[in-house]
Amino acid sequence: MGVGLGGVNGISFPGAQGRKGPSKCVISDAKWQQLILMSLSLRPSSNKHQRKTEQTQSTYNCNYTGPPQPLQPEGYELLDELCPGLDYDNRAICCNVDQLRTLKGSLQLPLQFLSRCPACFFNLMTLGKNVVEVQYFIGQRFTNAMYSACKDVQAPSSNVKALSLLCGKDASQCNATNWIQYLFDINNGQTPFSIVPKFSDDPVSGFNPMNNHTFNCTEPLEDGSGACSCQDCTQACGPKPVPPPQPPPWVILGIDGMVVVMWLSYMGFLLIFVGFVVGAWCYRKRTIMSEYGPILDSSSPLSLNSDDPDQVNASCCERLGERFENFMRVVFSSWGHSASVILVAAASGGLFYMRITTDPVELWSSPSSQARVEKDYFDSHFGPFFRTAQLIITTNLTEPENYKPFLPGPVIPFHPLLTKAILHEVLDLQLDIENIVATYEGQNVTLQDICLAPLAPYNNNCTILSVLNYFKTCTCLSERHHALHDPCLGTFGGPVFPWLALGGYDGGFKDLVGIAGILIVLSSVAASLGIFSYLNVPLTLIVIEVIPFLVLAVGVDNIFIIVQTYQRDERMPQEELHQQIGRILGDVAPSMFLSSFSETVAFFLGALSNMPAVRTFSLFAGLAVFIDFLLQISCFVSLLGLDAKRQQENRLDILCCVKLRESQETKTDGCLFSFFKKIYAPFVLKDWVRPIVVAVFVGMLSFSIAVVNKVDIGLDQKLSMPDDSYVLDYFKNLSAYLHTGAPVYFVVEDGLDYRSLDGQNAVCGGVGCNNNSLVQQVYTASQISNYTTIAFTPSSWLDDYFDWVKPQSTCCRVYNSTGAFCNASVADPSCVHCRPMSSEGKKRPTGNDFMHFLPMFLSDNPNPKCGKGGHAAYASAVDLIQNNTEVGASYFMTYHTILKESPDYIKALKMARTLAQNITDAMGHHVFAYSVFYVFYEQYLTIIYDTALNLCVSLAAIFVVTTVLLGFELWSAAMVSFMWLWGISLNAVSLVNLVMSCGISVEFCSHIVRAFSISVRSNRVERAEEALAHMGSSVFSGITLTKFGGILILALSKSQIFQVFYFRMYLAIVLLGATHGLIFLPVLLSYIGPSVNKAKVAATNRRFAGTEREHLLNY
């Protein structure tokens, strides 16, 4: 049967336009009401002319063609509320009060989501006029105006536009015509019969299309309702915000500016250096004068060869330095060792109290950092952030399934993953996971025992965001229906967002002595761990992984120096073994002490860092290095004496009971020492080699500075996984399929007065709210998400509360007798609206009214009658204090855009904090942004500063302790350049390694520098050659060679973090340390090394005068 739609409301008034005829109800009673239903099914009315069909369970009105009938008094109030814009007075109409109540219940969903923009809801309500036949003639002007007023209205609880919930598709694909087509289509699950809309501004088939007056979303209504807010009406916003342009890269002539500057600087240095070398060479050709001339000339009063040694004219600093060194020589020559083993055992006992920090928050975030303070505030007011377990499901099938939508349009290809068979398999998997039972301490534990259930105890279903739960985990899920819905509430009572459920729907060493050296290293590490465990300082995995390597690096070379110095030494006449070892220790221990003490001070100063991982490492490392030094000059020296006795008695190493024949074991210099003394040192210090070395290493320094700003910042979480870990596939799929980022909360700290209009307007995003309110600023930021990383409009409990409490809504009801809350699903005639249907009652609640109804809103479970209940979405978002009489802290949640790499997370943190500061400035009340990853990525906001500070403090400490810093700065800069070349990012792990490289640099350089300073050769070149010959072999064998075995083992590790941050950086540390200490440092000393200390030279001559070692002074 065809019925036309025209006239006025299906209510035949005199003068109604349309087909002429007597005044009678030409449509079955209130059948016209069903043309504007956009929510759930009609509830039955008591009208005797209604019936239900068995197939659809929808309410149909029986045929009635009698005259219009007057309403009861309360019916006219309902009619005025439901069909605004006409003065019905006491006219007779074609519906009764029960049908009007049914209509009002059916309009609750669009009321809840569209009434926040009064113009939009008014226009929608007038869509019900002029119903005469089933074919509905609607003016195109009216259609466009209604859509224009509604297209931007937001649904705060679901972070989407309301039309996404009322149009059968995403709001971006909804337009003026297909929205009305969807509302009138039988396939939407609500319309009981098909209605065909006809869009035209001109009369069609004798019917005048409905073109009632509409309101633009920027216009206030005649009843005093204000214009829509910017959030719900883009026309009220003004121009769309434009992100500031990215700063252009610094280039000179199209080349990176830093590269050009450093290249020019290097060229300038080469010109000056070459000129200096040539000038010095010409000067030496004319006048050959040794820096030791005044000292060696016996006729000079300054000569060391003078008959009166008291005439040596040394400066005050030189005499002070000689006395200090003599003091250390005497102290270490008489060093005792009896208590060393006892002290180590006592210190190691602290290992019983050892605690290992595995909490990443404790490891990477300082307790006093901004992110940590904000996290603690969030946890204390809203509870800790829940953990997420995620499954990513894909399929190998490639053949899409074509799907034809219910509205006219092209065929849509669906991914094979969305086929019915696969979805049912996924459903089986989900149900199996929900039914998992584990046993813990003799008790059964299910998923419901540990999951997040926001509506507990009323609803104990777990929060599961899946495509299955989008359809409430029913077996009909694969029948792709498009019912009108409140944003797809899952079984747990909260919304299931499609973008979360579906992703993008758019040599010379002795064996026994060597073993002893290793045991000493392990003992020093154990003692350090034990002492700090006594002090209740927890250690980290970085400490366990790095410190043994560090102590081995800085300690083994000391062992090599002691052993090789003993091997090369000749016992003096009348000197016993213990005296010889004491004398050797007195010679080498000052150098060992200075290097170890400077490293210890540098590491302890590194503990000033705010980064817990770096601070803990520095504390443990500093103490371990110093204990290692003490054990070396005590325990190891004692073991060396025992080994020397074994050697004197010609007994085998380790197998001490086996005695060899006489003269089978002799002392030799060793091949490595001979190579350094006769070949390597003379070659490196040749006149033509030295300038080349300087030019190459200064070039390396220039390159390092040029690329220092190109090192990536952050730690890729994939590096923490082994190469064959399944988690790597998870990360890969996460990057490929993830459609949204992490949730971000804008937290309003307690103290804001939500009772007042000023306090509400500073936060909310609806009608009457400030243009720079919290919700509005976050909404504006979401418009330029590529720049701000804010993806969506925030969920606003305050705006939803205002919609919930409106008297037009069925959400807020109380029992008339008790005043207790009455849920919308309760059918009880004693339940009445919370607020009166008056102009005052329609305003926002303020004062005591605001706080009286707010606890009801936060306890209301959403249901088909009221989707605005705040229990599921906002129960934890508002901290009610003072016995529910005040609002404390509260948060407004949205999401970041997709974040895949460390720079994305760092940018998101920066932008969120900038936005929060802008909100704070606008509100005059503190607001901060919080997301679960902020505590881990905050360190990268200051990582450059922390790196510079730690390196500078470490180097300054080394400089103060040793007073000689030659070559150290160059190595640290070179380490940064190698990080860039090898793709090593700057983070806490690499920062620890950089700090460690400063410590190891002392080992590579300090021994050679000290040997140079006490040398008595005639000029700097010969002094550098002597220092390199005597100490170079010990440094090379003690650090360089002993490290390569361990480093190569790291290269075979399956852990990528070991391959990148340990193998690559450790290899760079050893290679750069060896080249700078054994190549560049001696050459640099030969040019600008410190002059000889005349007091030390005189003391050396006096000490060895008349002994067999006197000839060694002339080397």
Automatic annotation (TrEMBL):
Family that this chain belongs to = Belongs to the patched family.
Q: Where in the cell is it found?
A: Endomembrane system
Provide one Gene Ontology cellular component: plasma membrane
Q: How does it sit in the membrane?
A: Multi-pass membrane protein
Tell me the InterPro entries matching this sequence: HMGCR/SNAP/NPC1-like_SSD (IPR053958), NPC1_MLD (IPR053956), NPC1_N (IPR032190), SSD (IPR000731)
Taking the first listed entry, what is the main subcellular location of this protein, grouped into a coarse class? membrane
Q: Which residues form the SSD domain?
A: 510-642
Q: Which domain of life does this protein belong to?
A: Eukaryota
Q: Where are the transmembrane segments?
A: 250-283, 512-535, 541-563, 617-642, 688-708, 919-937, 949-968, 980-1006, 1027-1053, 1065-1088
List keywords of the entry alphabetically: Cholesterol metabolism, Disulfide bond, Glycoprotein, Lipid metabolism, Lipid transport, Membrane, Signal, Steroid metabolism, Sterol metabolism, Transmembrane, Transmembrane helix, Transport
Reactions this protein catalyses: cholesterol(in) = cholesterol(out)
Can you supply a Gene Ontology BP term from the record?
cholesterol metabolic process
Any one GO molecular function term: cholesterol binding
- This protein's name: SSD domain-containing protein
